[in-house]
Amino acid sequence: MIRTESSQSESHTRTETFSSQTTYTSNGTFVQTPSSSGFQQAPKVPLEAGPAYVPYTDTIPPVHPFRTLVLCFDGTGDQFDADNSNIVEFFAMLKKDDPEKQLVYYQAGIGTYTTPQIATPFMSKISQTLDMMIAWNLDAHIMGGYEFLMQNYRAGDRICIFGFSRGAYTARCLAGMIHKVGLLPTCNHQQVPFAYKMYTQADDVGWKQSNAFKKTFSIDVDIEFLGVWDTVSSVGLIPRRLPFTTSNTVVKTFRHAVSLDERRAKFKANHWNKPNKTEATLSITDKKAKKEHEGGAHKKKKDGNGKNSLKSLENQYAKDKNAETDIDEVWFAGCHCDIGGGSVATGVKPNLARIPIRWMIRECFKTNSGIMFHTDGLKGINLDPDMLYPVVRPRPPPLSAGTTGPTAYIKPTPKEPEVAANDDDYVASDVMAETEEEAELKDALAPIYDQLSLAWGWWILELLPLRHRTQESDDGSWTSWFYWNLGRGRHVPKQKKKGVRVHRSVKIRLDAKYPDGSPYIPKADLNESYITWVD
Q1: pTM for the full model?
Q2: Neighbouring residues of 352: CB distance < 8 A, sequence distance ≥ 6
Q3: pLDDT for 450
């Protein structure tokens, strides 16, 4: 496919001098981009004008033939603080000092910032609270990432997006918006809200308009890698479901780390699903969500007519209908924040969340994403760079409790929050204190932090009848029902037909015991006879 991206390319070739900067913006994002003023780039500062700068040389891969744009969306209420998520840990390892090779973007989680239009501290606090409850500012989060790509994308760049919790949902929405309306050329800021409206309008009229908008204003881009930790669409009473969040043919590689032990009603796993005939290019949107757009010039057609015309429109406008995304969803032991990080203070070891981040980084190398990491950061989480580059080498067999000494037990959840034993333990080093397998054994036996046991306020939602959806049949059709969750574990879909992929660290935990002799039993309805163990 030939891409027509001249306007984007021209905007980046008007000058040849770039200077790099990392900025923390008022809406809670860190952005490392070439600095700019209109179309003019800041002049390069002579070396003698300041202290000598020694660039990083310890990155893998050290070079690649393309530039990578990496976007990271943090979880609900998460930002850089004393209990960082895996998104912050992941971002810390990325190469940031050469924007000609890799540009990076970090966005703090839903509930941590407000839109610039809200000026007073009182209203700002209300907006943040509503954002945390019902993703009040979800549109601002999605458009923030979209504008970063709009301003910085050049033809040939690879786009990689990561997220945790509702940041994972934001990441999937951003990929969906790029699929449906394309990517606007640089500096079209006024068009972004309109493009977002086109993205969210899910009826047949909206589909026609979005395709016309895409052909008129935008360019087609692909998503090289979409990696998420335990996607959650909403923790409030108002569900948000937007197009292309459950399947998306412009995403080449999708990786999802899923929690086996999370059991809160509004934290059900949001899986990547096979699109059915009416979802091949447009994901299902709740009727309530559709009504948000009925106040415009066009009214939504009745269900029957809408579905019939939508099918023909999908056949007419679908991009790469037969393209298949490389999908891998792997289940890990632990609750929501044991998968995406944030259950314990930064630097606490062992920690269940260290296992999914190591798996995700390994997948970045296995799929040849091109994302550049600092080797000292990889060693800091017990990843051996020589096992990842230039070739991803097979892992040694896992250790079991008692292999390296006295029998190890699963650690119960402590009554008081754990703190890091020594700040020096958290500092990345050129020397790995222990192998990945040794660290994995300890991390696999770390405590699980179940919020239904630790924060009883979550039980309010357990006692309310809430709607749940799952895709069980091979034809891609959905089943939905209302029920009281009452602390039930997650449902593992299609495991009898398709099997279920579970990380090998779960087997370490299954084979071990708690100090009182009781075994670990995953909260999800996992059938061990259908398990495929994953490294």
Answers
A1: 0.79
A2: 332, 333, 334, 338, 339, 343, 443, 444, 446, 447, 448
A3: 95
